[in-house]
TrEMBL record, chain A:
Family assignment from sequence similarity: Belongs to the binding-protein-dependent transport system permease family.
A Pfam family annotated for this UniProt entry: BPD_transp_1_N
Membrane-crossing segments per the record: 12-30, 99-119, 131-155, 175-191, 275-301
UniProt keyword terms in alphabetical order: Cell membrane, Membrane, Transmembrane, Transmembrane helix, Transport
Lineage, top ranks: Bacteria, Bacillati, Actinomycetota, Actinomycetes, Bifidobacteriales
Cited InterPro entries: BPD_transp_1_N, MetI-like, MetI-like_sf
Name the record gives this protein: Binding-protein-dependent transport systems inner membrane component
Topology in the lipid bilayer: Multi-pass membrane protein
Superkingdom: Bacteria
From TrEMBL, chain B:
Protein name, per record: ABC-type transporter, ATPase component
GO BP, sorted A to Z: peptide transport; transmembrane transport
A Pfam family matched in the record: oligo_HPY
InterPro entries to which the protein is assigned, alphabetical: AAA+_ATPase, ABC_transp_ATP-bind, ABC_transporter-like_ATP-bd, ABC_transporter-like_CS, Oligopep_ABC_C, P-loop_NTPase
Organism lineage: Bacteria, Bacillati, Actinomycetota, Actinomycetes, Bifidobacteriales
Keyword tRNA processing: no
Gene3D superfamilies membership: P-loop containing nucleotide triphosphate hydrolases (3.40.50.300)
Keyword field contains ATP-binding: yes
Amino acid sequence: MGKYLLRRVLQMIPVVLGTTLLVYALVFALPGDPVKAMFGDKPVNEAVAAQIRAEYNLDKPFIIQYLLFLKNALTLNFGQTFAGQPITAEIARAFPVTIRLGIMAFFFEAIFGIIFGIISGLKKGKWYDTVILIVSLLLISVPTFVTGFAGQYFLGVQWSLIPVTAGNDPGFFDLLFPAMVLGSVSMAYIIRLTRSEISSNIAEDYVRTARAKGMSNKSVMVRHVLRNSLIPVVTYLGQDLGALMGGAMITEQIFNIHGVGFLTYQSILKGESNLVVSIVTLLMLVFVVCNLIVDLLYAALDPRIRYA
Amino acid sequence: MTENVNENTEAKIVAMQREQGPLLEVKDLQVDFTTDDKRAVHAVRDASFSVYPGQWVAIVGESGSGKSTSAMAVLGLLPGTGHIVGGSIKLEGQEIAGFKPKEFDKLRGSKMGLVPQDPMSNLNPVYRIGTQVKEALKANGMDVSHEKRSALAKALAGDEVAVKGNDDETFIGSAQLPALLEDAKSALTAIGVSGEKFDNVMQYFKDEWVPGSETRWRVADDLIKAGVSDDKAWEIAKKHVTGSTMEDRIAGLLSEAGLPDAATRARQYPHEFSGGMRQRALIAIGLACRPDLLIADEPTSALDVTVQKKILDHLHMLTDSLGTAVLFITHDLGLAAERAQHIVVMYKGQVVESGPSLEVLQHPQHPYTKRLVAAAPSLASQRIISAKERGEDADALLEHQVKGEATLEKSEHIITVDHLTKEFKLPRKKEMFKAVDDVSFSVKRGTTLAIVGESGSGKSTVANMVLKLLEPTSGTVTYEGKDISSFKGKELLDFRRHVQPVFQNPYGSLDPMYSIYRSIEEPLRIHKIGDKKSRAKRVRELLDMVEMPESVMTRYPNELSGGQRQRIAIARAMALDPDVIICDEAVSALDVLVQDQVLRLLNDLQAEKGLSYLFITHDLAVVRQIADEVVVMQHGRLVEHATTDEVFDHPKMQYTRDLLDAIPGGKLQLGLD
């Protein structure tokens, strides 16, 4: 187990190097000159521009820029934004918001996804199963910017039931509807996954054996059907948590939530390569760790899987 | 656990059985399944049988005969849409057929136990073995420190030792075991037992005194038998045998079921167990709450023969000592006869015969039973019988139509080919080429007709026309009295279902991109038979039928040998339970040994299922092994048609004689043995 963990952690090194290089190259390849963009409508002062380029190493070849970034990153110095803010401060401001939003979305999709999935799976073919299936299909097929904008317009603007935008340092109620929008697609998948798992597990031989033991319907359902059905659901949720922590670019844009997704989008627009790469690296670490947790969780839930 | 049931007690059992009446009485049971289009399929029709206390009763029949369904109806565990539509099921005189699920919960485990068929799928992979035994004990609120004995077992035990009260049924606890052994040792020393005898006795104690399984009176009894005085023995037993914990009881149950090192094993997961060990665990679970009736649904059919015997021996011993009645479900008549006192034979949902085992075996009345007797794998001496005899059997079966089945008279000839002609247009030639010229013959139900001839004699063309893959130029092919050329839509699909081909080239007839599983499952899928799960089960059965391991399911044709592929092709042909199989040079591409194996397989399948074969080959040696009748073809014409023996002994035509001479070693006797 210890060896396995060590191996997984070591595996992260090439992953980190590869992704940072790739992202750096992509940002570098973006059209437009970020320095010129800073001057906006005013004429570009070449001397000042050259000074800024030198300050941010933008005058050096791509690979040197990248290596310089890596060197600084190793000492946890991620540099500054063009506006002079330390990148770490920018990220530290955005992350808590995204974590709040992500966790709310996570609980929303987990709780409602599993509950509706169980109802659907146990009552396969009944009318509520059909209704649940149709709704989940709708949620899967309609993009989040449609559900998001529609909800924002009707619930927020027309009927004033929810705050229209979240703004700085949003609270629980500011994030409630955005979290529902963010979690809705995954919820639909979880419903379908839980439903199919339940309905296939219920026909398993060991479920019949459990009944033959004289166990009550309730304990058969909980101990044998549910327990086994939730294994793939839990792993799906674990992976989704990583995705949610990455922030939701679209949802955060719609509701003006200043989280990681919002920050990433803005920094791509401004061509802030260091900021983009820093965020992406961090997100990737979160993702890899979440995946590792999922794998370990999987082993804990299913004894047939053991890591050595 | 080791007491022998002697003749005296046997007589006593019989007396008790008479006195108490049947433990389980099933009368005119009818079980229906509802299909998707709301039709009722009668799985069990008017089945009646009884099980007396302590008795082994076997229900024998092929898959789909309703034997498992009957048993599941008794347990209230009918799968899917199954439901009881008529008849009664009485357990200890109480009608349980109309019970609600909650009421069944109370019976299951404590009154009726189940040992299911497939040990691989019947244990939940995520729980430890011990936990799964514990569930059974907990669900029925079992007292884990005391043994629960049936009235029958009590009466039997009373013969040997007077069981004085509930306390005497207290289990040994693992915590107290060392002290118990210590005291036993000093007691033995005190009465002057020493040397080898001392060692033997102590070893016996160590082996026999299993915590959670052996009880106080057994300990006292063992000590008394070793020479310790009554008072001393009971004193030791009372002092140290004070009840077991849940863990002890679980280990005790598992070790009773024959699992070595049970305490450790209980902490393992099912995937760490072999099939045989899992089945032992399932036996422990089935018997955990000491049910009066144990339903053993093909408990060993998934295991290999040696393990099968061990496990059944053990189960027999265990149920005898506990006085548990067993309803034993099997497809193997020999196995049933060996184990059960009473046999019930089921066929197509009905009980066609029942009686004492030996009687059924020695004087089978119903033709289906006769066929079972002939095919029973354990009755080795009778297993391989000549094709001719089997043919007669199959005819006899026709005379005894199972009541309730379509009484519409079926003709003796399942396939008739009448003046069949097929002409092909050859390129750059005016006249048509007659591949098949005015050929007539018929295949009798349950027999094999071989078409022999060199390549180009038109035999494969005949096969293709019989399969309705080619349209004849003139003449007709009739199947079950109906002209196949008129078949369309549903009728054609039905025909395709009942007439299946096995082609020559096993390399070409399996899609290389399909896994073996998918290949065999495909016909079931096309004909919309069953759901995913039942199809998977069917595929496993089919693989078992052609003696291939389940592990090939995930493999691809290129990973298998020619003989193996041909078995897969046969399994695929058998998937839809056809009446007729058309084997077009089915064994020609195989080497002699493999050929023999496949022929035997085909022989066995014919005996078991009453199939008819149209067997196309160029090899007369093969014909002798498999065919009842032979048609010899040359240049598209039928030159000779006679029984196999006639063709071999008195060939009429020169061409046939030439063919016969071409058999290597043809004068040697090529029997079926």
